[in-house]
Specification:
The structure is a single chain. By secondary structure, the protein is mostly helical. It has a domain of 51 residues. 70% of the residues lie in helices and 0% in strands. The radius of gyration is 31 Å and the shape is rod-shaped. The N and C termini lie far apart (68 Å).
Length: 84
């Protein structure tokens, strides 16, 4: 909508969205930050889950060796497989 109250006779009054455009701009910025935070957190969770799985496998291997379910040679071979 055009208003004729600016120098030269043409203008847009309060601007688009009737002066509340800044609210929508803030909302857009907040949404972008929330999305970025979610993406970074997802990557961090994936990395942590992979470390937990590896550490969990080592713990299980250590427990099996401690209980005597596997011998020393098998323990060393499987430990080397997990470390590589």
């Amino acid at each position: 909508m055009m208003w004729f109250n600016h120098p030269g006779g043409f203008g847009y009054g309060y601007g688009m969205m009737g002066g509340f455009g800044w609210i929508f701009m803030v909302l857009i910025i907040v949404v972008v930050f929330v999305l970025l935070f979610g993406v970074f957190r997802q990557f961090a969770d994936d990395r942590r889950d992979r470390r937990m799985l590896t550490r969990g496998a080592r713990d299980i291997l250590d427990e099996r060796y401690a209980r005597g379910e596997i011998d020393t040679d098998e323990y060393k071979r499987k430990r080397a497989d997990l470390d590589s």
